[in-house]
Amino acid sequence: MKHFSLIILFIFLITSCSSVKKHNEQRSSCISPEELRKDVDYAYDKIKEMHPKLYWYISKNQLDHKFDSLKQTITQPLTPLEFYFKLQPVIASIKEGHLSLRIPIKKFTKKEIKSLDNKKGMFSRFEYYVTGEHLYIIENKDSIEHIKSGTEILKINDVPVPLYLKKYKNLISSDGYNTTFQPYFLKDIFFNFYSAEFGFRDSAKIETVYHDQIKTYTIKRAEKSKFDFEKDKEQKKRTLEKKVNDYVAFNNSYNRTFKFLSSDSSVAYIKVKSFSRSYSEKFYKETFAKIKNAKVKYLVIDIRNNYGGSLDEINNLYSYLAPAPFTLIKRSQVTSKSSPLKTNYFRKSNALEYTFKSILYPAYIVSQTMNTYKKDSIVYYKMKADRETKPQNDAFHGKVFVLINGGSFSASSILSAKLKNDKLATLVGEETGGANDGTIAGFYSYQKLPYSKISLPIGLALVQPNIDFTNTERGVLPDFTVTESIQDILDKKDRQMEWVMKEIGNEKNGK
């Protein structure tokens, strides 16, 4: 076995040296129209084969027409990146937020990665806000060029920002006819698209306006100082507190936080930025023990800007809110018994992982097969969250408020829809970015288009909350709509939290 592992490792080392160069050459080369049209057919065939509810928001005739029309427009050779910008809008028209091509990006050598690690980000040192055709800076973390919060970016390298926004918006879809998701996701991913399109440059010229005064700045990818390296080193240390609260070194924050909001500890607050599952059981166990000991009457759960994650984590969280046994989701549908076997088991495995997975592969096949069954001509896949779950001993039985917005997606929407349906919480904020009646995700098959080599992850399972469906084809609608403006953000006014605290105050005062 040791000899076999060394052979695998040697093969990986040899191939990895040339794979970066080969990838980048392929990424910059033009592909013939005939081959690109074959990629379009391949993508659509694989989606039809594995997507369990493809025509949820668009009819078959409409989607057939879109793919056929796309092929007719491909008359000239294109690079993979150019092809991506033509194909992805058609896939986005399916209106499934989890279904999206991976944008073909340049790969870096170890030397290039080390060089980038020695520099600060350029655009990533700002926080942004998108509304309509406007892109604003709402936070300047390093006081770059002393650009003030609230500054609008008008142009990037002489190209008007609305042109970028229009182009990138076409690449993004939420679930169904949701109206709030796009600006939240776009503010986070705008410069991912930009960097993929124009590369990781060391500088950029931006034209801005602040209080009617137009200025032009050149922002640069600055070298890290000794202090920056020490800070990076400190942030990478994994203490128990960091593990339990799921610390994220990239933005120096925690995925989970807990605190009391009142001096008498009658109001508790849980913020979850992502349902990562990492140490989540320990976090909720300790948190709800504190809530019970403090005899909390009101609990605020904040899942704004939470793009989702683990079903097991939200199932566990729900068990601390439920008064009786519950089932979080309905049985998950897949297209066939073989569908769960198409999950690219060996994907992103290094030499040792590949060897270990090879040994476990027969057990994996048996497990996936046993979890798939057919009933009434429908194929289902067993998940932990579709089984009945008992409430926790420390389950909270006071009043629950849940804060949601357009950035609440996927698992966040499943949780919100279930809490609203079961009348266990008051939802405050905006319509969620994910659909009220479920989504297509669960686990993925990562397809690669034959000629452009673009990756196409396809969700394999129909995941729906165990509720009475609204059939609105929209997100989860709040019980009380409270929106925020850019001025609220700049003034650090949390309108949704203010609304909740005012409501709690009124209840306490008997109003």
Automatic annotation (TrEMBL):
<dbReference type="GO" id="GO:0008236">
    <property type="term" value="F:serine-type peptidase activity"/>
</dbReference>
<protein>
    <submittedName>
        <fullName>Peptidase S41</fullName>
    </submittedName>
</protein>
<dbReference type="InterPro" id="IPR005151">
    <property type="entry name" value="Tail-specific_protease"/>
</dbReference>
<dbReference type="InterPro" id="IPR029045">
    <property type="entry name" value="ClpP/crotonase-like_dom_sf"/>
</dbReference>
<dbReference type="GO" id="GO:0030288">
    <property type="term" value="C:outer membrane-bounded periplasmic space"/>
</dbReference>
<dbReference type="Pfam" id="PF03572">
    <property type="entry name" value="Peptidase_S41"/>
</dbReference>
<dbReference type="GO" id="GO:0004175">
    <property type="term" value="F:endopeptidase activity"/>
</dbReference>
<dbReference type="GO" id="GO:0007165">
    <property type="term" value="P:signal transduction"/>
</dbReference>
<dbReference type="GO" id="GO:0006508">
    <property type="term" value="P:proteolysis"/>
</dbReference>
<feature type="domain" description="Tail specific protease">
    <location>
        <begin position="237"/>
        <end position="483"/>
    </location>
</feature>
